[in-house]
Design goal:
single chain, mainly alpha, hpI Integrase, Chain A, 3 domains, two-stranded antiparallel ribbon, 15 helices, elongated
Length: 354
Amino acid sequence: MPLKAYKRGKTWWAKGRVEFNDRPITEYIRESTGASEKAGAEDWIRNRTELELRRYHFGDEQPPITLEEAALLTDLDPQSAKRIVPVVELYGKKRINDLNSEIIREICRTVQPNNSTDTWRRWILVPLKKIARTATSTGRCHKIEFDGFNNLERVTQDKKRGKQSRPPKKPGSREWLAAFKTTASPTLYVLARFMFETASRVGQATAMTPYHLSRLDENIVMIPCAKGHSETELEIDDTLANLLRSLEPKTPRGWAKKPENLRVFGYASKDGPTKAWNSACERANITRLTRHEAGRHGFATETFTRKGVDLKACTEYGRWADPMLFLKTYAHAEESTEKVLTAIRTTPVQKNEE
């Protein structure tokens, strides 16, 4: 029987033999395709059939590629490479084609038992997908797909580790900034205010050099590129411009003292302010907001929710390409129940309801 797709749970599998001239050329195959849709399973069968036919006609010129071999051929970013090392150490000898969504979940539970499914996705699933694509390009394996994690799996894993993933974000505010100022260094305070008023990410802010302030006399700053956005000119108000002028650019600790190494806020990376930031929050006895919450989330909520600035202006100035993402993730509602009840109570009623 030729290879056919069939559904098993939420995943499509394949069973049968690869045939040539109506004669089987492989042993009986029963494997998961890793696909959640029939079309994906059919792609898997087509690729597997082509692979087995090449083996039948030309032999195995090279053995099937292993996870370890494919990982060495894949250009991963440093953080992903570091996180995938334990996976390769435990499962590196396994053939790429032996991996499927079920085995990926086993890997996640073994290597990172106390992490969330979001973390599994970022540091295990995404790198493994990239490694699998590299393996496919060598011609030593067929194309495979891995399913992501659904909401039920996320909730189940959260219960096991006793911690909620995706906790609600808390946006920054003018009041929070005022309290933060009382214990933060002047540079750290200006950093927080800069992110709050320009919707900049901490990585953009810490990457700023004197060049990015070269038009400060015109109240123009250059926002470094990030998340697919190119470098952007942004007009700021006089107060923030004066605060930026008061800063003396510094070379991050451990860097060579060269002009090209100067940074406006003196930090080497987005993680540079973390310790001082958390300490300032603790001393001021205020909520320990992340830099993203204090900055980008704070900007969105302050402008759209609190001040009523129109959506188009908020997203253009804050450099959001997707207005729906701005509304769904960054512009937080505040005092929702009180606002709705007040509106209902003050809405004129019809005469027959008076």
